[in-house]
Design a protein that fits this description.
Layout: H1 10-29, E1 40-45, H2 51-59, E2 66-74, H3 80-94, E3 100-105, H4 115-136, E4 140-143, H5 149-161, E5 168-172, H6 183-188, E6 194-197, H7 200-205, E7 210-211
Parallel strand pairs: 1-2, 1-4, 2-3, 4-5, 5-6, 6-7
């Protein structure tokens, strides 16, 4: 059984969630005025290794306003589903109306896969992700570095360009990245609405990023 996820410190949690809390204000302002707005749909991209553990630590700070939560992970990821189900089971004990979905997509790039073949598999993953993203139509997308987040975010960007649905992309670079961004980070740095790093060296190299210190 997975050990319980340690909570973030109060200051770190507030700083991390500030962008996420400000975004709904802008979104809800465009919705029906004078009436209670529905919760915000959140799409979460999980990944193998420590990515899923880190992203669940971030989610543990979110209120019940972020619902439903749609999780997407690679079809070759054998660990994320169990971690997510365990997390959501505990969350349901706190919020009775907690809702979530699980979806798999083809992995865009395997470890040590050649760059040429990666282009082909990424395009295939984008084609697979687009109808799924269209169906979910999330208000927010939260990701932290797995290669799976690239096709998902590109699909969301295409939905926005087509005028179908504008999703806010929040990218949190993994704590493991101290001086250089991950490949996913290097790509999504230019497309995300909020790009959060956890080391000052990355903030110096990438001025658009937001440095909050260690948050996971």
């Amino acid at each position: 059984m997975e050990p319980p996820l340690p909570p973030l410190s109060g200051a770190a949690a507030v700083l991390l969630l500030l962008p996420l809390l400000l975004v709904p204000v802008a979104l809800l302002a465009r919705r029906r005025r004078g009436r209670r707005a529905p919760p915000l749909s959140l799409l979460v991209v999980a990944g193998s290794g420590g990515h899923t553990t880190e992203i669940l630590r971030l989610l543990s700070c979110l209120s019940e306003s972020y619902s439903p939560r749609h999780y997407i992970f690679a079809d070759s990821d054998k660990m994320s589903e169990a971690k997510i189900r365990s997390f959501e089971q505990k969350r349901a004990e706190r919020f009775s109306n907690s809702q979530f979905t699980l979806d798999r997509i083809p992995r865009s790039r395997e470890v040590r896969q050649s760059w040429i073949s990666s282009v082909v598999t990424t395009l295939y993953s984008i084609l697979y992700s687009f109808p799924l993203t269209y169906k979910l139509k999330p208000d927010l997308i939260l990701c932290n570095g797995p290669g799976t987040c690239v096709p998902v975010c590109i699909s969301a960007l295409l939905l926005g360009l087509l005028g179908i649905k504008r999703a806010i992309i929040v990218y949190v670079e993994s704590i493991c990245r101290v001086e250089t961004l991950s490949l996913s980070g290097k790509i999504l740095y230019y497309f995300s609405d909020y790009f959060i790093v956890q080391w000052p060296a990355l903030k110096e190299k990438y001025p658009k990023s937001v440095y909050l210190g260690r948050i996971v």
